[in-house]
Amino acid sequence: MNEPRRKPRVAVVFGGRSSEHAISCITAGSVLRAIDREAYDVVPVGIATDGRWVLEADDPERLALGGSGELPAVDGERAAIVLSPDREHTDLVVSEPSEPPRTLGEVDVVFPLLHGPWGEDGTLQGMLEMAGVRYVGSGVLASAVSMDKAYMKVVLAAAGLPVLPSVTVTRHDWERDQLGCQARAEQIGYPLFVKPARGGSSIGISKAHDASELAGCLEEAFRHDPKALLETFADGAREVECGVLQSLDGPPETSVPAEIRIGGDHEFYDFEAKYLPEQHTELDVPADLPEEVAKELRTLAARAFEAVGCEGLARVDFFVMPDGSLVVNELNTMPGFTPTSMFPLMWEATGLDYPALVDRLVKLALARDTGLR
User: Fold this and answer.
1) How far apart are CA 140 and CA 252, in angstroms?
2) Is the pLDDT of residue 87 over 90?
3) pLDDT attached to residue 234
4) Do 24 and 119 meet the contact criterion of CB atoms below 8 Å apart?
5) Can you give the pTM of this predicted structure?
6) How high is the pLDDT of residue 97?
7) pLDDT tens across 110-136, in order?
8) Rounded Cα–Cα distance for residues 205 and 257 (Å)
9) Residues 285-328: tens digit of each pLDDT
10) Using the 8-state DSSP alphabet, how is residue 219 labeled?
11) Is 343 helix (H, G, I), strand (E, B) or coil?
12) What are the coiled-coil residue ranges (predicted)?
């Protein structure tokens, strides 16, 4: 008598060591709530802020953003969990004090809902490649390039895609030659934005209106990353985004574009405007764009996805300039993924709802192997 075929086991991995830990937890709560439990065996795996991997509670509500803005976090005191390094047996092994290790069985695919360094930047993807475990999203190179805004611009520009002028300044550069760094900033002109080169969720980003504010903006960026990107201010630009999904047997698919309109006293789309409920940011899904501009934007989004070598999913962010021209701002290989995040909202407006989107991404991951491809 044949044993019943087991469901694919999906390890939902979230949290992490980056400054986007809380956002990752919020994203994971949404995915845990939406994933089809009839189709998949789901294991929530949290990475605490100190890097400890734990078997988290399967409790989406605990991972939600609090009503007054309290941010969730992984409980690092829970039982430790590791992924077996044996490529022949990709087991999840749980270790608790005074108890022998126990296995949860093999994991078929990892859904890495990590944002920022040590998760979205190719480091986790490299570990999973070495372990021979399939995973959702882009591989090592595309993840690393997209995480580093400076190198991302180099790749996009080489592919003929429009990007804003920028320069990079490291902490070492600044400590060694402040006058030289100031001269490089003058080359692109003020006002300008100063960003952690490998950050996300607008954490650590500030606007230098003139040279007197450069030092303070760099220090804020260096709190999160020893490498900062100085980028031209896109005066009068509209912020428009587009979702991209890999196709099993054809070119990447794109969503309808959507626009972010920032309210209140925010000069740009900062962390508070993105995530805190009392802010007045509005999302127009779809964006009110001329048909030819929307079509070109979707074409450029697919080109950017392929230029960097993305897999699975990405959100491509654009500036629509006052004259209607388009500039690629950045790619996110693991964009915000709550039901109210821009990426799922764009796909819902395109005809793919949140549970179906989660299911599609898992199926894409199960359909591909690890290694060179």
Assistant:
1) 19
2) no
3) 94
4) yes
5) 0.89
6) 81
7) 999 999 889 999 999 999 999 999 999
8) 24
9) 999 999 999 999 999 999 999 999 999 999 999 999 999 999 99
10) H
11) helix
12) none
b/e sequence 35-65, b meaning 16+ C-beta within 10 Å? beeeebebbbbbbbeeebbbbbeeebeebbb
Let me know how long the chain is: 373
Mean pLDDT of 233-256: 95
Decide: 109 and 128 in contact? Cβ < 8 Å: no
The greatest distance separating any two alpha carbons of the chain, rounded to the nearest whole angstrom, comes to 78
Instruction: Quote the distance between the C-alpha of residue 168 and its chain's center.
Output: 21
- Please write the tens of the pLDDT for every residue from 150-184: 999 999 999 999 999 999 999 999 999 999 999 99
Kindly give the pairing relationship between strand 80-83 and strand 9-15: unpaired
**SS3 per-residue string spanning 286-323:** CCCCCHHHHHHHHHHHHHHHHHHCCCCEEEEEEEECCC
Round to whole Å and give the CA distance between 315 and 245: 9
CA distance 172 to 226: 8
Distance CA 253, CA 244 (A): 6
Q: Are 147 and 224 in contact (CB under 8 A)?
A: no
- Pull the structure tokens for residue 149: 């805004």
Give the residue with greater pLDDT, 91 vs 195: 195
Write the CB contacts of 218 (distance below 8 Å, at least 6 apart in sequence): 169, 174, 181, 194, 228
**Amino acid identity of 295?**
K
Provide the pairing of β-strand 109-113 with 134-135: parallel
Place of tokens 């992490």: 16
Extract the tokens encoding 303: 């080109």
Query: What is the distance between the alpha carbons of residues 93 and 3, in angstroms, rounded to a whole number?
Result: 24
Q: What 8-state DSSP symbol labels residue 86?
A: -
Between CA 335 and CA 96 the distance in angstroms is 33
CA distances from residue 297 to 152, 256, 324 in whole angstroms, order as listed: 18, 9, 11
Token digits for 112? Answer: 């890495």
Cα distances (Å, whole numbers) of residue 11 to 4, 107, 267: 21, 7, 39
Report the helix count and the strand count for the chain, using DSSP H and E.
11, 18
Report, as an integer, the average pLDDT of 36-65: 95
Contact status, residue 55 vs residue 45, Cβ threshold 8 Å: yes
Could you tell me the pLDDT band of residue 200, with boundaries at 50, 70 and 90?
Answer: low
